[in-house]
Amino acid sequence: MHTSASGPCPWGLRVLRAWPRLRCVQPVKMAAAAARGCWQRLVGSAAQARVAGRPSVLLLPVRRESAAADTRPTVRPRNDVAHKQLSAFGEYVAEILPKYVQQVQVSCFNELEICIHPDGVIPVLTFLRDHSNAQFKSLADLTAVDIPTRQNRFEIVYNLLSLRFNSRIRVKTYTDELTPIESSVSVYKAANWYEREIWDMFGVFFANHPDLRRILTDYGFEGHPFRKDFPLSGYVELRYDDEVKRVVAEPVELAQEFRKFDLNSPWEAFPAYRQPPESLKLEAGDKKPEAK
């Protein structure tokens, strides 16, 4: 039953259930109905349902966005003022530390990134922590990225937070498998376990770390799982041995029926790709069909 006092009911009233007793009427938004003068009509409908001795459901229209609005992506608007301020601060840091800062950029979401030389980890982090215009006292996160195509395949990322200025900054540096990076534990105590995790997962060595050892993998684990060249199945598998009454590590052994050799070519992912029947390989003993 659609109801309205003068025209359609206000948007936002969805479903009102009026039971035989008037006191059981449950409006979703009574204030909106009262503001539009619809409440008296709703009460009258409930009274009619009471006389009939059965519940009535009042269905009111709900405002819905158009289909085009549902498919629009959510885009974070760009703040030009914040973008200019971050660019100015990045140039300011580059002018003060020109020996270490190699690149300054601001991402599309107003996040400042400073790329530095590996030798400048301690000076740059100390400057950002102690300078009166920075005050990045908190190390929010420390992680690494493995990019095997680069000469220095590992990218170390420091995410810093300034509670005083409500600002964030990313400091990036680089290294390879053999070159160590100076530990930042002397600047941020929170970097202790972060650097242990990077050493465990990526194999990046941090010099002068107070306790650089594995933190996630088991004792005696070989390799670094987050490297792109690490096999997905790993090198060893664990199982409980009833004879020795303990967990033992053995080389990975996959049963033949679990191995998948049907590897698709990259161009087979395209819908227009169709393999011609002439290119199909014939099994031993099969004959090529004759053309009719």
Description:
Strands 3-4-7-6-5 form a five-stranded mixed β-sheet. Strands 1-2 form a two-stranded antiparallel ribbon. Among the domains are: 49 residues, no CATH class; 128 residues, NADH:ubiquinone oxidoreductase Nqo5 subunit (Beta Polymerase, domain 2, 2-Layer Sandwich). It is elongated and about 70 Å long. The N terminus is likely disordered. Helix content is 22%, strand content 21%. Helix 6 links the parallel strand 8 and strand 9. It is of the alpha+beta class and 292 residues long. The protein contains six helices and eleven strands.
Task: Supply the key terms.
single chain, alpha+beta, Beta Polymerase, domain 2, 5-stranded mixed β-sheet, two-stranded antiparallel ribbon, 6 helices, 11 strands, 21% strand, disordered N terminus
What is the N-to-C order of secondary-structure elements (H for helix, E for strand)?
Answer: EHHEHHEEHEEEEHEEE
If you consult CATH, what is the topology of the domain at 80-207?
Beta Polymerase, domain 2
Mean pLDDT: 77
The low-pLDDT segments are 1-29, 273-285
Rg, rounded, reads 33 Å
